[in-house]
Amino acid sequence: xxxxxxxxxxxxxxxxxxxxxxxxxxxxxxxxxxxxxxxxxxxxxxxxxxxxxxxxxxxxxxxxxxxxxxxxxxxxxxxxxxxxxxxxxxxxxxxxxxxxxxxxxxxxxxxxxxxxxxxxxxxxxxxxxxxxxxxxxxxxxxxxxxxxxxxxxx
Length: 154
Description:
It contains five helices and six strands, in the order βββββααβααα. It has two domains: 11-43; 50-152, no CATH class. It has helices at residues 63-73, 81-97, 105-119, 121-131, 137-152; strands at 11-18, 24-31, 37-43, 50-52, 58-60, 102-104. The chain is 45% helix and 21% strand. InterPro entries: ATP-cone_dom (IPR005144), NrdR-like_N (IPR055173), RNR_NrdR-like (IPR003796).
């Protein structure tokens, strides 16, 4: 690691510890040449995920876009921001562990609906009604019927 004071490439690690979220390692280093101390941060290099939309277009994954959809579905519902963030973390973990560079937008939608079904059924129905583009009241009733049947089979 290059020293920010003297540009020497020789340093030693004095202390290492994870940051609060556990995604980054903070290292205190000391330059072998000038004995100055400095801090570096180490994190995993993430491969960007490309989302393939229904019409075939591609765009970079945007966490905020997914979060905004979840927030809208959970408006005025007893779902905390922390629960929504955990849901997105879970979805992102599934995407990264799939090892796919391109992910169909339908998969993300299904993962969101699955997570919302466990968090809050009303938020689930709200999200599903937009995501599945319910055309009429019958489609809406069919989805509610499926949800009720699943609930009675548990």
